[in-house]
């Protein structure tokens, strides 16, 4: 039975790497995948991982009908055996409904990869809809780590180096350059609640408030 599978995790947990691995394994067996992404770090029309791998993808633009796109492609003789969607948290709920229809009506597996919650610890609408509709949800096992060594479960946004908990849900930043205007960092819940990024921890290293917690 074809499935809609939601692979979820924090930033930095290897989602895109796994997406590329699934793509590699299936294309090596002669299967043809349709890859969608949205706002990838490598730019429009690319699916890239932090490990440096990259492949071509179709930008799942706002308002795009993903089901209609696939029907159109297949009706013109395009071969599509499965679908991969990276950065799925950025999809509109309606687009997630379209992916469920791809599974049910076109009989294709759909593997969606995304972050569940934003920097305010609120669900992204796309991820919420995936949790509601997915046949299966997989929490990625490549666990990101907070600066303290604990498992990182929450995404923090920094602006000019300071952690913020208010603002637009989607602002593209760079986890590799958190000191610039908008950056992101993964933290454990304890340090997310205390707004304690690695930079803040280093700055206040003498405070008992920032003693590292023992990793679980
Ligand atoms: Zn921590």
From TrEMBL:
Keywords: ATP-binding, Cytoplasm, DNA synthesis, Kinase, Nucleotide-binding, Transferase. The active site is at residue 87. GO terms for molecular function: ATP binding; thymidine kinase activity. It catalyses: thymidine + ATP = dTMP + ADP + H(+). Substrate binds at residues 170-173, 184. NCBIfam families: PRK04296.1-2 (NF003297). Its EC number is 2.7.1.21. GO terms for biological process: DNA biosynthetic process; thymidine metabolic process. Gene3D superfamilies: 3.30.60.20, P-loop containing nucleotide triphosphate hydrolases. Belongs to the thymidine kinase family. Homotetramer. ATP binds at residues 9-16, 86-89. It is found in: Cytoplasm. The keyword Cytoplasm applies. It is an enzyme of class 2 (transferase). This is Thymidine kinase. The gene is tdk. Its main location: cytoplasm. GO terms for cellular component: cytosol. It comes from Streptomyces purpureus.
